[in-house]
C-alpha cells in the first residue's frame, strides 16, 4: 500500500478538507469573501463557505470546504507510541498487590486557574467515562482528588503528605499557553521539593497537549483527548511496578 495519501471528501483522493475558524468581522457578504480569501491563501482551491454564523457583535464563525493539493507521507509521521500494554482491571489490581504490596496512591487536581474538572474526574471518579470505571474503582488504588484551581505549592504539599506514587494533573485551558507554563511550574516545584527517589510519577493530561512533549515539560507522561481510565491505570502499574501481562501470569 502506498505510504502517500490525500484527504478523502466525496471520492477517494479528491483532496477535500473542511476547516472552521472565526474572523473578527460582522456577519455579511464581505465576511464570507474574507473567509474565502483566507482559505485561498491557505491553499484551498476551489473553496466554498458551507456555514457561517454571527458570533456576538463583530465576529463571524465559518466552516469552509475545499480542495488542497498537499500529500501526506505516512512514512514521515512521528507520534508518541504507547509503550505499555493496556491491562484488564483484574490484572492491574493483581500487579499492584503483588509488586507494591500496598495501595497505589494517586493524587489528582486541576492546577492554576483551570476549573475544568470533567476530564480529571472522568479518569479518577468511580463513575469514569464511556462505560469505563475511573481509578477509584480499582481496589488496589487510593485516590485523592483535590478538584479545581489547586495551587502548585498546595499540590506538592498534599502529594508529600499522602506519599503519592503518582500525581495526575489536568490542564484544559490553553490560552496564552497556560497549560505549558503551569505544567513546567509544577514539575519544577516537585523537583525542588523532593529528591528523585521520593518524587512521585508526574502525569499531565488535557485535550490540547502534544503527547510528545513530556521530557520538555519535565513530566513522565502526557495523555491527550479521548484517554480512558484503564489506559492510565495500566500506565501507572507499568511505570511503578514494571508490570506487564507476563508478570501477571508468573
Ligand atoms: C464544560 C466546559 C466548561 C465548564 C467546566 C465545568 C467543569 N466542572 O469542568 C465551565 C462552564 C465552568 C467552563 C468555564 C470556562 N471555560 Co470551558 N469548556 C467546557 C467544554 C464545553 C467541555 C470540556 C469538557 O468537559 N470536556 C469533556 C472531558 C471529558 O474531556 P477532556 O477535558 O478533554 O478530558 C479527557 C482528556 O483530555 C483526558 N484528560 C483530561 N485531563 C486529564 C488529566 C490526566 C492526568 C489524564 C491522564 C487525562 C486527562 O482524559 C479525559 C477523558 O478522556 C469545553 C469545550 C469542549 N467542547 O471541549 C470548553 C472550553 C474548554 N472552555 C473554554 C473556556 C475559554 C472557558 C472559560 C475561560 C470561559 C469564560 N470566558 O469564562 C471558563 C474558564 C473557567 C476556568 N477558570 O477554568 C475554552 C478553552 C479555550 C482554550 N484554548 O483554552 C473551551 C475549549 C471552549 C472554547 N472553544 O472556547 N467551561
What would you note in describing this structure?
With 250 residues, this protein is α/β, with parallel strands linked by helices. It has eight helices and ten strands. The protein has helices at 29-41, 89-100, 118-124, 152-162, 178-193, 214-217, 229-241, 245-249, and strands at 4-5, 16-23, 47-54, 60-67, 72-73, 104-110, 141-145, 166-170, 201-205, 221-223. The protein has a five-stranded parallel sheet with strand order 7-6-8-9-10, with helices on both faces. The longest helix has 16 residues, at 178-193. It is elongated. The two termini are 40 Å apart. The site of cobalamin has 28 residues, from helix 3, strand 8 and strand 9.
Largest sheet: 5 strands, parallel
Distance between the termini: 40 Å
Average per-residue pLDDT, rounded, comes to: 95
What coarse outline follows from CA principal-axis ratios? elongated
Bound molecules: cobalamin
Radius of gyration: 23 Å
The tally of strands reads 10
Structural class: alpha/beta
Please give the order of strands in the largest beta sheet. Answer: 7-6-8-9-10
Q: Identify low-pLDDT runs.
A: 245-250
The fraction of residues in strands falls at 15-25%
* Discrete helix count: 8
Helix content: 25-40%
Amino acid at each position: 500500500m502506498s505510504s502517500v495519501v490525500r484527504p478523502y471528501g466525496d471520492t477517494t483522493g479528491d483532496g477535500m478538507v473542511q476547516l472552521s475558524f472565526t474572523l473578527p468581522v460582522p456577519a455579511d457578504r464581505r465576511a464570507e469573501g474574507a473567509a474565502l480569501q483566507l482559505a485561498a491563501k491557505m491553499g484551498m482551491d476551489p473553496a466554498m463557505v458551507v456555514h457561517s454564523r454571527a458570533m456576538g457583535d463583530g465576529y463571524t464563525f465559518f466552516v469552509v470546504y475545499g480542495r488542497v493539493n498537499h500529500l501526506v507521507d505516512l512514512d514521515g509521521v512521528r507520534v508518541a507510541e504507547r509503550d505499555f500494554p493496556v491491562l484488564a482491571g483484574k490484572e492491574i489490581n493483581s500487579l499492584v498487590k503483588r509488586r507494591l504490596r500496598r495501595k497505589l496512591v494517586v493524587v489528582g487536581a486541576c492546577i492554576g486557574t483551570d476549573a475544568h474538572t470533567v476530564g480529571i474526574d472522568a479518569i479518577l471518579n468511580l463513575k469514569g467515562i464511556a462505560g469505563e470505571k475511573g481509578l477509584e474503582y480499582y481496589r488496589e488504588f487510593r485516590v485523592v482528588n483535590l478538584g479545581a484551581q489547586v495551587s502548585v505549592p498546595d499540590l506538592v504539599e498534599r502529594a508529600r503528605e499522602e506519599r503519592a506514587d503518582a500525581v495526575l494533573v489536568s490542564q484544559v485551558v490553553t490560552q496564552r499557553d497556560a497549560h505549558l507554563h503551569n505544567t513546567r511550574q509544577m514539575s519544577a516545584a516537585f523537583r525542588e521539593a523532593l529528591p528523585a527517589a521520593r518524587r512521585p510519577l508526574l502525569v499531565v493530561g488535557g485535550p490540547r497537549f502534544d503527547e510528545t512533549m513530556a521530557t520538555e515539560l519535565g513530566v513522565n507522561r502526557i495523555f491527550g483527548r479521548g484517554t480512558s481510565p484503564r489506559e492510565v491505570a495500566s500506565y501507572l502499574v507499568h511505570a511503578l511496578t514494571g508490570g506487564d501481562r507476563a508478570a501477571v501470569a508468573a
